[in-house]
Design brief:
Length: 264
Amino acid sequence: MPRRLLFFLLFSFIKVYAAFEVQALNPSFIARGGIISIHSGSLNPAATLENQGIKFRVDYSNLFGIKGLRCCDFSIGWGSESKRGASFHVNSLGSQIYQENTYGIGYCQSIRNVIALGVIVKYYDLEIAGYDSTGAIGLTFGSKFYLNDFLRMSLLFQNVNAPKICNKSDALPESFTFGIQWIPDSRVEIDVEIFKDTIFPFSTRVGAKVAVFQGLFGLLGVQLNPDRYSGGISFVWNGFQFDAAILHHVVLPYTFYFGCSYNI
């Protein structure tokens, strides 16, 4: 597809709707259909407790292979035996001409090992060459329900305070996500999410994680409305985790995602 047409599609989209549309960058989530509310390190602060100790993570992608759409993410998550956890993350997308930066700090707590609740405060910073930078604060709430050893549910409400950016004239994305995590076997996990943005229609996401052998996992996923197909691998060794994913978009070129983490 011609490069000029790609830029037209992307930037006309940003012009009509608010920016900060990129939800996930972690390859292990992208490969499973772009799920965002189920696992530790996702956008759901309540899931942070599933990671014991301190976890450092870095993810990178060059969206659709366009130089001006390079995206990176750095995060730190901490979970303790006292059933409390905290997280911090920084995300950056764009170039010197147009750049989106997001800074977030979160807190979560478990109640009787059945329900985990969490909150994230985010600061969205937008910088466009030739203009003054602008920002907004968003508030996100999340929860996770541990029904039994095999079935879990998640709820995520993003930007519930309806933040606006660009002199409070452009609303940032507000959304609701409902997720189900099913672990029928120690080697298999199936995730299903229903995502609803206040502007766009419902979107369904389905993903699977299968253990190939010890430490190596295969990942597959699909997202409907818009239709996207994805896959990847995850390798875990001595506290390190390495992930890679590929996302197929029905209109735009493929996007590759890479990430790694270390758990102390």
